[in-house]
């Protein structure tokens, strides 16, 4: 199952790629209307859930990976969020239980995005809003760095890290908006969110060592000497990416889409 890759990596995820995913949280919150009942899908270490609770949402959150849920619960402390371990496409919530649903970088990690979206539509009340983000497929500064390391060392990710043909969708504004429309959502709008991600080089590398994302897949598949070569190649390149604050700076963008569950005549 796609979520096996997330087992036991909550702490390095939070320091590396979790910090990256958290960059879109302010824009996700902007899309939400007045606070009500929110479900945060694939909550990871809880970035969206915790921020939404702080601005007044009554938050439920779930993740397929138990250690992510445990980490998020500890981090959330007294925020009053109800966390559970659960996996799309089968959720333990009644029909129409939520005013809003957020899925920050989750639809790009599940095996069956259409079945997942059907389930999210089920738990959303008519008129309720879904906000989802995914990474675009085009070249990014982080993607370029990973490609250079791979080309220099010959350590490529194993094949098959993409969804099967027919399950996948284009990682663009049009692709994500089209997927939401296809899955019965209305008033679909999609846009690009731009930001600079600042991250400590060792913390980012801890995510690679934990086997996260495309560079992590390549690292996990490499032997010990190739892993050492990858780290040396990384250390050689990071000074050019480092700002005055001593952190790596990456100018990045994400695709954000927002849509509502339409109100049917039978709902009134
Ligand atoms: C890239 S992380 C995003 C986490 C979080 N939303 C954030 O912004 O940091 C993807 C998350 O989706 C979870 N996940 C993967 N497949 C899932 C599924 N079928 N159902 C629920 N969660 C899933 C993973 O365990 C992981 O925590």
UniProtKB/TrEMBL annotation:
<dbReference type="GO" id="GO:0008757">
    <property type="term" value="F:S-adenosylmethionine-dependent methyltransferase activity"/>
</dbReference>
<dbReference type="Pfam" id="PF08241">
    <property type="entry name" value="Methyltransf_11"/>
</dbReference>
<keyword id="KW-0808">Transferase</keyword>
<dbReference type="InterPro" id="IPR029063">
    <property type="entry name" value="SAM-dependent_MTases_sf"/>
</dbReference>
<dbReference type="InterPro" id="IPR013216">
    <property type="entry name" value="Methyltransf_11"/>
</dbReference>
<feature type="domain" description="Methyltransferase type 11">
    <location>
        <begin position="39"/>
        <end position="131"/>
    </location>
</feature>
<dbReference type="GO" id="GO:0032259">
    <property type="term" value="P:methylation"/>
</dbReference>
<protein>
    <submittedName>
        <fullName>Class I SAM-dependent methyltransferase</fullName>
    </submittedName>
</protein>
<keyword id="KW-0489">Methyltransferase</keyword>
């Amino acid at each position: 199952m796609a979520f096996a890759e997330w087992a036991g990596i909550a702490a390095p995820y939070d320091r590396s790629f979790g910090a990256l995913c958290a960059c879109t949280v302010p824009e996700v919150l902007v899309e939400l209307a007045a606070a009500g009942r929110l479900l945060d899908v694939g909550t990871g270490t809880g970035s969206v859930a915790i921020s939404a609770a702080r601005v007044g949402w009554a938050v439920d959150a779930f993740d397929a990976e138990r250690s992510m849920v445990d980490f998020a619960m500890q981090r959330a402390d007294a925020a009053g969020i109800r966390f559970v371990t659960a996996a799309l496409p089968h959720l333990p919530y009644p029909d129409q239980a939520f005013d809003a649903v957020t899925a920050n970088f989750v639809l790009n990690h599940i095996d069956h995005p259409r079945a997942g979206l059907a389930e999210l539509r089920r738990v959303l009340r008519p008129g309720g809003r879904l906000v989802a983000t995914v990474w675009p497929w085009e070249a990014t500064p982080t993607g370029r760095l990973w490609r250079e390391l791979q080309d220099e060392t010959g350590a490529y990710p194993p094949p098959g890290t993409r969804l099967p043909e027919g399950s996948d969708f284009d990682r663009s504004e049009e692709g994500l908006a089209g997927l939401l429309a296809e899955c019965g959502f209305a008033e679909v709008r999609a846009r690009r969110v731009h930001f600079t991600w600042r991250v400590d080089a060792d913390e980012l590398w801890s995510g690679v060592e934990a086997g996260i994302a495309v560079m992590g897949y390549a690292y996990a598949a490499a032997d010990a000497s190739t892993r050492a070569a990858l780290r040396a190649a990384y250390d050689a390149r990071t000074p050019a990416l480092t700002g005055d604050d001593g952190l790596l700076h990456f100018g990045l963008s994400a695709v954000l889409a927002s849509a509502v569950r339409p109100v049917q005549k039978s709902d009134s």
